[in-house]
Amino acid sequence: xxxxxxxxxxxxxxxxxxxxxxxxxxxxxxxxxxxxxxxxxxxxxxxxxxxxxxxxxxxxxxxxxxxxxxxxxxxxxxxxxxxxxxxxxxxxxxxxxxxxxxxxxxxxxxxxxxxxxxxxxxxxxxxxxxxxxxxxxxxxxxxxxxxxxxxxxxxxxxxxxxxxxxxxxxxxxxxxxxxxxxxxxxxxxxxxxxxxxxxxxxxxxxxxxxxxxxxxxxxxxx
Length: 222
What we know:
Blueprint: E1 3-7, H1 12-22, E2 28-33, H2 45-48, E3 58-59, E4 70-74, H3 78-91, E5 94-97, H4 104-114, E6 119-121, H5 127-142, H6 164-177, H7 191-204
């Protein structure tokens, strides 16, 4: 059983995660975090998610929750996620980050911090997208003389564009077709941390069950 903390507990993804955890007996919600000043701070996380009272109050003090025996699920934004990673790295807490929009400077700092604790940072947690990225890498290797272009369409309220998914696909293609020197991927996954992330999602999201996807190599634009 994993002791889970959900960051961004009042947001759409945070509420979804809390609802899934509430219906799952394998893992336990031990903390819920929101930014200071958000109206849901102080409210019951389960009631905020529409899952009934869980006895876990939403707090703005992540440092008080992060411990080595916890796993944080963070789908907030780049700035908040980096702040949480700073805290998790000091506390020895495991953290899974699905936020995107990291600047090169933020990405560099994230790489440093990720090495200090069990960390997974991935631009997209979708099984289908990760399989797509794997397939794109294989196709790019088979067609080295072809030019490639990544086009995406998203809603007008999208915070970061291009999206983390589009950047990941572009980086894979760049490394194989254009010979851009690969670096450590923005998916910071050690074997232990990857198993934690996949294990958590395998039990609270049925679509992930009995499926193992290798971390996709991505690289920074140079």
